[in-house]
Structures are given as structure tokens and as C-alpha cells.
């Protein structure tokens, strides 16, 4: 595995690992992440990773902790190195040495319905208003919004076709009449500007032949939040979190929400029960019950 940039020539080990990832259907972003993590490990070793020892792995993980590397990065490196050791090198003994870093899962920030409306209204232009409308109105991830094509909007069945979402899975997302109307407004404007190609990207980037970037969508959300006076930490994913939470507060079955979000595990979707204000408010607190009992037993005045 080379220790240079991603433009460096493939070594036999790196090429074999890339072939293993390809055969197992890992997504392009996952492949890039794995190569980057293994390259960092090789740079730490100053030699090829196929010569690593259990002590080398221990020293590398200790080095990460001592240098303030975050839990997500450490665990990403563990996933990459486990793939290298288990699949490519067939070294189960090395994979067993790797240690996952446990960290508490934070509750997602969620907008109120009123805040979501203000954010969309403050979006910088109809294209971004439509794109953020998809993130909130259909619960799509930012990469899924960016890679939608015109033909993915099925106005007959009122569905949005999401191709190769997270985990390389296809799914259908909901398309409400209001969202369809918003998309039609953008489609007409895009056609007028000459940026909407037949069968092309629904949200073109700076070039009509390229999709809008996730970075552009992040920037648009932050600009809209500032204009709308929303002080919460907001990103396109906040709109997806808000979509799920608001559906839960409308008494939509959590299993339906799981399907709409494309979650493989129900426990992932269940996280939204912890941020749903309606779920929390629906529970009678023990102090309220105690006070009610005390009032019933109080002697008449």
C-alpha cells in the first residue's frame, strides 16, 4: 500500500485491496475512505502494512488517541484495517487487535415546523428552495438530493426514485403535492435558464452535466439559517432529521418512517423518539400524578 497521494501509482497490495472492495460491492466513497485510512497507517509504519505486527497496530491506535483524533476517524480506520487484514491479507490475528472507540451518540438537532418553513423561505433562490424542500419533504440525504435526475420524479405514482442510496440500495421516497409543485416551479425556471437537460440532473451544478455538490447545499442551508435567524446548528441532514421527527409527531408508524428513510435497522429510526416533543409531552410525569392524588385526598376547606 503506497504512502503517497491518491494519484500515486498502485502497489500490488493496494491494487489487490481495491479489487477485493470492488468484488464485495463497496461504494466508491467507502473505497476511497478505506484506501486513505490504510495509507495513513502505512505512513505511520514507514513500510508496507502487510508487514504489520500486533504491536504496530497497538502503537498506531495509541498514537491516534494521543494526537486527539476523533472517535469517528478512529473507528473509520478500524473498519478499513479490518477489511485489509481479514479480506485482503487473511490475517484474522491482526484484525482482533483493533479496538473500536466507544462514544455516546448525540441526539440530532431538529427544527420545529415553523423553523423549517422559515428556512425554506430564506433559501437563496428557487433551485436551493426546491433542493432543500426535497431534503425536508422527502427525508433524503444530501448526497441523494444532489444525485437526483429529472426522471426520478414520478408524478403519476407520486414517488421519488432514489437510486443507489446509502448501502447501495434503491428505494422510493414520498412525493407530496406541495413538493411536486415546488419542483415544477424549479423545473420551469431551470428550463428557462437553459440548465435543465432532458433526462439530466434535477439540480445541476456549475456545469449542466454535473450534479450540484454537497458542499453547495451545505452552504445554502447555512446562508438560509442565518437569514431566517435560526441559531441552531443546521445542515442539510438537519432537514432529514426534522422530516422523521415531524412524521413521528403526526403518529406515522415508526416502521413506515424506517422505510421512507431507508434505514436497515429499526433501532436507528427509533432514535427520533428521543427528540420528538409530542412523544415526550404525551407521557404523564410521576410528579403530576402525585400532586393529583394529593389534591384528591386534601380535606375540604
TrEMBL record:
Source organism per UniProt: Rhizobium loti
The segment(s) forming the Core-binding (CB) domain are 8-89
SUPFAM superfamilies, A to Z: DNA breaking-rejoining enzymes
Keywords assigned by UniProt, alphabetized: DNA integration, DNA recombination, DNA-binding
- Report the family membership: Belongs to the 'phage' integrase family.
Q: Where is the Tyr recombinase domain?
A: 106-285
Query: PANTHER family from the entry?
Result: PHAGE INTEGRASE-RELATED (PTHR30349), PROPHAGE INTEGRASE INTD-RELATED (PTHR30349:SF64)
**Gene3D superfamilies, A to Z:** 1.10.150.130, Intergrase catalytic core (1.10.443.10)
Q: How is this protein named in the record?
A: Integrase
Q: Which InterPro entries match?
A: CB, DNA_brk_join_enz, Integrase-like_cat_sf, Integrase_catalytic, Integrase_recombinase_N, Integrase_SAM-like_N, Tyrosine_recombinase_XerCD
- GO molecular function per UniProt: DNA binding
Example GO biological process: DNA recombination
Question: Does the entry feature the keyword Iron, yes or no?
Answer: no
Amino acid at each position: 500500500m503506497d504512502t503517497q497521494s491518491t494519484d500515486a501509482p498502485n502497489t500490488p497490495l493496494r491494487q489487490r485491496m481495491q479489487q477485493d472492495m470492488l468484488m464485495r460491492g463497496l461504494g466508491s466513497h467507502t473505497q476511497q475512505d478505506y484506501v486513505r485510512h490504510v495509507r495513513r497507517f502505512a505512513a505511520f509504519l514507514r513500510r508496507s502494512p502487510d508487514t504489520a505486527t500486533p504491536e504496530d497496530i497497538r502503537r498506531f491506535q495509541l498514537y491516534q488517541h494521543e494526537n486527539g483524533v476523533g472517535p469517528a476517524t478512529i473507528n473509520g480506520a478500524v473498519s478499513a484495517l479490518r477489511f485489509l487484514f481479514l479480506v485482503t491479507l487473511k490475517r484474522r490475528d491482526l484484525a482482533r487487535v483493533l479496538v473500536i472507540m466507544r462514544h455516546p451518540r448525540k441526539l440530532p438537532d431538529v427544527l420545529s415546523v415553523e423553523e423549517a418553513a422559515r428556512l425554506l423561505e430564506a433559501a437563496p433562490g428557487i433551485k436551493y428552495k426546491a433542493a432543500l424542500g426535497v431534503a425536508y419533504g422527502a427525508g433524503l440525504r444530501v448526497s441523494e438530493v444532489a444525485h437526483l435526475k429529472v426522471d426520478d420524479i414520478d408524478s403519476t405514482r407520486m414517488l421519488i426514485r432514489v437510486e443507489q442510496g446509502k448501502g447501495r440500495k434503491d428505494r422510493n421516497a414520498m412525493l407530496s403535492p406541495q413538493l411536486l409543485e415546488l419542483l415544477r416551479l424549479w423545473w420551469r425556471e431551470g428550463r428557462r435558464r437553459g440548465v435543465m437537460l432532458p433526462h439530466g440532473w434535477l439540480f445541476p451544478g456549475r456545469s449542466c452535466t454535473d450534479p450540484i455538490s454537497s458542499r453547495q447545499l451545505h452552504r445554502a442551508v447555512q446562508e438560509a439559517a442565518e437569514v431566517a435567524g435560526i441559531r441552531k446548528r443546521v445542515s442539510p441532514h438537519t432537514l432529514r432529521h426534522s422530516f422523521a421527527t415531524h412524521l413521528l409527531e403526526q403518529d406515522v408508524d415508526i416502521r413506515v418512517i424506517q422505510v421512507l428513510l431507508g434505514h436497515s435497522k429499526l433501532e436507528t429510526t427509533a432514535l427520533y423518539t428521543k427528540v420528538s416533543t409530542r412523544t415526550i409531552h404525551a407521557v404523564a410525569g410521576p410528579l403530576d400524578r402525585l400532586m393529583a392524588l394529593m389534591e384528591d385526598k386534601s380535606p375540604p376547606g
